[in-house]
Write a structure and sequence with these properties.
- The chain has one domain: SGNH hydrolase (Rossmann fold, 3-Layer(aba) Sandwich), CATH 3.40.50.
- It is 36% helix and 10% strand.
- It is globular and about 50 Å long.
- The N terminus is likely disordered.
- By secondary structure, the chain is an alpha/beta fold.
- The chain has 9 helices and 5 strands; from the N terminus they run H-E-H-E-H-E-H-H-E-H-H-E-H-H.
- It has a 5-stranded parallel β-sheet, with helices on both faces.
- Strand 1, helix 2 and strand 2 form a beta-alpha-beta unit.
Length: 296
């Protein structure tokens, strides 16, 4: 089996497919699965420092580098400058699903932050020289939305639609300021996380059904958005399938099992809800594979 360190060093999947000297911009939104702790009023991304702040790998929930870290620094064919607005605990909109504490920045807050900084027409071009062609916008959200609400309503399909309407209203705002390339990541099977395995079988089944409905609607929303807006390129990485593949046969991927957690080598889960940095190598690999061969 290939070791974790060897995978990072030698796997050569392409993210951006332009020349090695090309400079591309990645604007990322999401929750703790993506967060690195970026602050817009501190050092901005630049060659040699692709995340700007904080120092690599940032404040992640993985015990090390996360998927976005790996894709920005390793799995690409160009210089990638990543503005990571993701915030731990985020939901799509705190008015729809409250986060674990009121100070958490929802994706609504994150997109508004982008629109007031790098996405603002008044932003100096020499500071953030992104264009529709050289930029990618990614959103990985829904984990907390579903985890904090799956037990509150019998009509989950309707509420999932409400959540996704709110998300894609934000995607439309990004489109309106020039975003054309979008990466979406769906909700992984957190019903199989140690957090949920400590709950009743009924609770696990409820969350699983909710996740499947949300993910199904997400794919439909992506198609509808692309059909309704000219010049759009969309990508969808199936996080649910990727997690399921490993959880169904963890030892084949170098992990002890599918249920325990810890910081030592061999664990898939680092705590009751988040995956370890070695697991995030697989997520980065999967995202890079989805983007490989595209306009990037």
């Amino acid at each position: 089996m290939v070791s974790y360190s060897s995978r990072v060093a030698f796997l050569g999947l392409g993210l951006f497919t332009g020349a090695a000297t090309a400079q591309n911009y990645w604007f990322s939104f999401g929750d703790s699965y993506t967060q690195t702790g970026f602050l817009t009023n501190l050092t901005l991304p630049s060659p040699g420092n692709p995340f700007g702040n904080p120092a690599y790998p940032g404040y992640t929930a993985t015990g090390g580098a996360n998927w976005l870290d790996f894709d920005t620094t390793t799995y690409n064919n160009s210089l990638v400058l990543t503005y990571n607005y993701a915030y731990g605990g985020a939901t799509i909109d705190s008015g729809l699903v409250a986060p674990f504490e009121p100070t958490v920045l929802s994706v609504t807050d994150q997109v508004n932050e982008f629109l007031g900084t790098a996405g603002s027409p008044s932003e100096p071009v020499e500071t953030t020289a992104w264009t529709s062609e050289n930029s990618l916008f990614s959103i990985w959200i829904g984990i907390n939305d579903l985890g904090n609400s799956y037990y509150l309503s019998d009509n989950r399909t309707s509420f999932d639609t409400t959540l996704l309407n709110a998300e894609f209203a934000l995607v439309q705002k990004l489109y309106d300021v020039g975003a054309r390339n979008f990466l979406f990541l769906n909700v992984p099977p957190t019903d199989r996380s140690p957090l949920m395995l400590a709950q009743s079988t009924e609770a696990q089944e409820m969350l699983k059904a909710n996740i499947l409905d949300f993910n199904s609607q997400l794919a439909e929303f992506i198609d509808e958005f692309k059909a309704s807006n000219s010049g759009v390129t969309t990508f969808l990485w199936d996080a649910n399938a990727a997690f399921t593949t490993i959880l169904d046969d963890p030892t084949a991927y170098g992990f002890i099992d599918a249920v325990s957690y810890g910081t030592d080598v061999g664990y898939f889960w680092i705590n009751t809800l988040h995956t370890t940095s070695p697991a995030n190598v697989y997520w980065a690999e999967g995202v890079a594979d989805v983007l490989s061969g595209s306009i990037w």
